[in-house]
Write a structure and sequence with these properties.
112 residues; mainly beta; 7-stranded mixed beta sheet; 4-stranded antiparallel beta sheet; 50% strand; globular
Length: 112
Amino acid sequence: QVQLVESGGGSVQSGGSLRLSCAAPGFTFNDYYMKWVRQAPGKRFEWVAGISPKGDYINYSDAVKGRFTISRDNVKNMMYLQMNSLIPEDTAVYFCEKTGTRGQGTQVTVSS
């Protein structure tokens, strides 16, 4: 059964950092492009970052470029999102995704 489980969210002040993790058991993780998306209250889902199966191709939304770093560990079937210089606009529920599957999300709250 394909399952994605996010963790690592929390509440931080503006300028702070958090590291999100996504556990991805139950499928051949290193066959898939993976991504992080987020949903702020009352807003649509927003793509944040994506990483190719081998981790050699990475891209970011303009909103997070230079502050967030996506990575993956294909041995551990894990994906990460290091978030630095957080701002209140980053407040959202963050989800990891592969095609057709999304986790339950982890809340990130940034106060000014």
